[in-house]
Design a protein that fits this description.
4-stranded mixed sheet; alpha+beta; binds FE2/S2 (inorganic) cluster; Glutaredoxin
Length: about 80
């Protein structure tokens, strides 16, 4: 079994058409404005296969999904996933 606790975290924000219409670009901007761990990266990505529930966000490597994310949710998501 691999210990993933030390792996860097990547937060993917779907920027494909449906999620973009639902405000995904603003969500990505909100994540990038956060001042937090250098071990977290934020990347826009293609369709995550959950169109209609967006903006969709996927946290890797933990594979935690968030749906209908609003810009004001960004800080709470990062707080929830970053180990103390
Ligand atoms: S367009 Fe975002 S999940 Fe498909």
């Amino acid at each position: 079994m691999t210990d993933r606790s030390s792996e860097p975290t990547c937060i993917l924000i779907c920027l494909n058409r449906t999620c973009r219409k639902q405000g995904a670009a603003e969500v990505l901007a909100a994540f990038r404005q956060l001042d937090n761990s250098p071990n977290i990266t934020y990347e826009g990505c293609g369709c995550l296969g959950n169109c209609g529930n967006g903006p969709m966000v996927l946290v890797l490597p933990a594979r935690i999904w968030y749906y209908r994310v609003r810009p004001q949710d960004a800080a709470n998501i990062v707080t929830a996933i970053v180990p103390e």
